[in-house]
Write a structure and sequence with these properties.
The protein is mainly β. The chain has 2 domains: 31 residues, no CATH class; 236 residues, Neuraminidase (6 Propeller), CATH 2.120.10.30.
């Protein structure tokens, strides 16, 4: 938020007119326009593979899935997705793509299929949700692919901007663009996504915030500040990177969060 700059003359005038502290306070106090914080509690912590460069995170049929990208400067990272073993934090791969060609990004399950984005190649992949056999490839209108979720009808993807795009899963045409903003303007760098009870929750790249987004207006109506968990991750494993990953188990009513190369996955509880 940009701080208001009060001219010196105005300050002199305020003090010369009277010493009414209430008047002075009301004229100089800055209004907080940031969306309200959502209180949360940490319920549990599970292991997470510190070689996992997390790009996608979701629960499907009671199992936690994670997708990762290969960062060239980190030789241990891979572009894959699979089921997370909650006892070890390791990913049991279902699909791995050529890390020399593609940087794996977000995934989503929808109507018997799995959809996977890649970063800057404008290519997505479609797999059978049971066999994980590749069925198809697709292109998308954004220059980059980041996070993905679904409302049960559309593929909902982010591309690092302040826009969230709705795609038709049948032909991958752009149905609508949801511009995301708060009281201070557009909210950029929208990353990993999760659809929970009619709202989209989005990691904001480079921050410790998850934004709660109204799907009708695009307004950020609340935010989770996970700085405490991020600091804990960094203290446990100094190479841990930014927070990225929110997954919702709609049956068990559980929410899991993590970050790139974090040592833990956290189960958190909040009012959604």
């Amino acid at each position: 938020m940009t701080k208001k700059i009060i001219p010196i003359a105005a300050i002199i005038l305020l003090f010369s007119c009277n010493n009414n502290s209430e008047t002075t306070s009301s004229q100089t106090q800055e209004t907080d326009n940031t969306p309200p914080l959502i209180n949360y509690s940490t319920i549990n912590a599970f292991p997470h593979d510190t070689t996992s460069f997390t790009e996608g995170f979701l629960v499907h049929d009671g199992q936690l899935y994670e997708s990762t990208g290969h960062e060239p400067d980190l030789s241990s990272t891979r572009s894959l997705f699979g089921v997370v073993d909650m006892k070890t934090g390791k990913i049991l791969p279902k699909v791995e793509i050529d890390k020399n060609k593609y940087f794996g990004e977000g995934i989503v399950f929808l109507k018997g299929k799995v959809y996977q984005l890649t970063y800057r190649t404008k290519v997505g992949f479609v797999y059978d949700a049971k066999t994980f056999k590749k069925l198809n490839e697709f292109t998308f209108p954004s220059q980059e692919g980041w996070g993905m979720t679904t409302d049960g009808t559309y593929l909902i993807m982010s591309d690092g901007t302040s826009n969230i795009n709705y795609l038709d899963p049948n032909n991958f045409k752009l149905i609508k663009i949801l511009g995301v903003s708060d009281n201070n303007g557009p909210v950029a760098a929208i990353n990993e996504l999760e659809y929970i009870n009619g709202f989209i929750y989005a990691n904001l790249y480079g921050t410790n915030y998850i934004a709660k987004i109204d799907t009708a207006s695009g307004k950020v109506v609340g935010r989770l500040d996970l700085a405490t968990l991020a600091n804990e991750a960094k203290n446990k494993y100094p190479d841990a990177l930014e927070m990225n990953g929110i997954a919702y188990d709609s049956v068990a009513k559980k929410v899991y969060v993590t970050g790139k190369m974090w040592p833990n996955i956290y189960e958190i509880k909040f009012s959604y």
